[in-house]
Design a protein that fits this description.
With 407 residues, this protein is mainly alpha-helical. The two termini are 29 Å apart. Helices cover 70% and strands 0% of the residues. The protein is globular and about 70 Å long. It has one domain (2-390): Formate dehydrogenase/DMSO reductase domain (Formate dehydrogenase/DMSO reductase fold, Up-down Bundle), CATH 1.20.1630.10. The longest helix is centred in the middle third of the chain and has 31 residues, at 242-272. It has helices at residues 2-14, 20-46, 61-74, 77-85, 95-117, 123-128, 136-164, 170-196, 209-235, 242-272, 279-285, 295-313, 320-338, 340-343, 362-390.
Length: 407
Amino acid sequence: MSEYLRFLWRCGRISFVGDWRYYLWMTFLTVIALLGLNAYCKQFVEGLIVTGMTDQVSWGLYIANFTFLVGMAAAAVMLVIPVYVYRNHDLHNLVIFGELLAVASIIMCLMFVTVDLGRPDRFMHLFLRFNFPMSMLSWDGIVLNGYLLLNLHICGYLIYCAYRRRQPGKMFYIPVVFIAIFWAISIHTVTAFLYVGLGGRPFWNAAIIAPRFLASAFAAGPAFLILTLQIINKTTSYDVSKKGIMLLRSIVTVALIINQFLLLSEVFTEFYTGSAHAASAYYLFFGLHGYTGLVGWIWTAITLNTIAMILLMLPASRSMKFLNVACVFMIVGIWIEKGMGLIVPAFIPTPLGEILEYVPTINETLVCLGIWAFGLLLFTIMVRITIPVLAGRLTYDTEYHFESVVE
């Protein structure tokens, strides 16, 4: 126990060590996080009236980000499956970064749920009246917190074993890894069922929602990892395998093609059949009765995803320059499509036929930016701690000079 506490102390100290780029990045994220905290304090005092949400549109930017981040968390499984199921060694040393991203993403998910509640004490209603298994909210609470604990165990155990310079005991983490694979799929599937199960919102009542969630998750998550791994490769001495990045590129390409196909299938079903429940889809893609709040956004998302798909299918995307452009376009496009493009249209028009558009307020936007900044801050610290441990420069039997920068 004393050695483990020493390990935690040394990890805490190393998180404050870096070059000017590290300090600048951490300062920037800290400032944005504090601005978000201030905005949340204002919301806590005045209530959800400071947001753009209303009785007609009760879910907005908070739940949109929650939905996107659940996918980011589930994307870690796209590193785990090739390594532990198909024994692909090119991704073996990169799995830990996917797990760290999952931890940061789930924490941000829980924070977005908290701020969306308005009053955190309302969590007590969920825990005291745990209507399991009938309530999808209870299922969602189980899978999110369970996935967080699974990834914390995997990350913590592997990093501590590397610190102790010993091989991880397979019985202590391999079963957890396989449980996490199925759990990763479950967190996104249950979140999709949370929407699909609301009968009063026909826009969500489609069985294709769950497969779309998974396809978009397996595209955006690995795309974010591709960008992150390149930053690690350029700013540290940790060697990131290019073969691993190219394998992630292949995964992203297939996932994005499937996501675009599922979107096309859903659009065909909505518009070709001429269903009476297609009003929300008309509002999203073309506007309804002069209201066009999301039309520009959704077509921007489709354009970005289409360009990213074309780039990924071309040999040019083997170049990091074009690959990075495709990844950025894909992340932004899926965030729009899976966030605001999925959540808000379901509330417009209302079951009474009213059309009341939703526009996020500045306070609401600052809270979102603050949560994102905190999540990235947490992810950066975890990566900062992990690299010297995996590289063998921070171990239990070596002295670490914290005044020097470890690259």
